[in-house]
Amino acid sequence: MQKSKKWRILALSTIATSFFALQTAEAATYTVQKGDTLSKIAQNHQVTIQDIKTWNNLTKDTIYVAQKLEVTKQPSNQEVKPLNPSTSTTKPVTPSKPISTSYTVVKGDTLSKIAKQYNVTLKELKDWNELTTDAIYIGQVLKVSPVASIPEGETIHNNVTSNTGAPSKVTTKDPTLSGQAIYKKTIEVANLLVGTPYLYGGNTPEGLDCSGFIFYAFNQSGLKIGRDSSEGYFFGNTSHVKTPVAGDLVFFENTYKEGISHMGIYLGDNKFVHAGTDGVEISDVTYSYWSSRLVAYKRFDLLK
């Protein structure tokens, strides 16, 4: 009887050990859920983003729902233990940090959010990427370490596209001399329009909507452009700018409708002038309402 009892205890112990071993094995793999990001998964499993990318052979931060990811380093089949742990010179393995990688801006990103994700300062990010403002745009590729390099052609990202599906254009140059002259005149006209009442579809000083304001200000300054919507200007003959200057266009999304829905003229120092619901006014892109909806800074191709 005593012998039978011992066998039962041994069997139960074996089953319990196998169960916990199975749980541990399953815990090494994580299935991506809706709303997940590499940053969130890394934080939940107390590892770095670079660890997960290395273990899963990922070259970018892009993941998809139902994707299975290794979230712990798998041990080798033969584990060699030191003879005397107290005298072993083996140093504990610490998670690696992303020291030479780049990051592609996605919807919802801010410069401060990216800095926090990669454990660097906002000033470091701006210095490494030669940014003079906190403005970034979807699809922009940023250096996130001092030794990072951006591969040739990576300044254009596939999810920054035109309405034809082609990659969006990006310029890193200042406007031409004639373009700078038009910008100066446009800003003068725009400032004179401050206080003009809002009028849906309006494109004269009697009343203006956001795109009508752009149409009127630039045409009065010598740049002959057609009347279009904010979305039309965004996907039309315009290019993203790496570092915006006063006179460039600034676009926002999800204001009164989903998608690109509002625009204005950048004035520098995070200020922009636009035709809002209260009329033409000057606002700050760093205010939470605008910063959470900021999409990109762009420039008419005629001014490049």
UniProtKB/TrEMBL annotation:
NlpC/P60 domain sequence ranges: 180-301
InterPro entries named among the record's database cross-references: LysM, LysM_dom_sf, NLP_P60_dom, Papain-like_cys_pep_sf, Peptidase_C40
Keywords of this entry: Hydrolase, Protease, Repeat, Signal, Thiol protease
SMART domains linked: LysM
Renumbered residue ranges of the record's region Disordered: 74-97
Compositionally skewed regions (Low complexity) per UniProt: 85-97
Keyword Metal-binding: no
This protein's name: LysM peptidoglycan-binding domain-containing protein
Top-level division of the source organism's lineage: Bacteria
Family: Belongs to the peptidase C40 family.
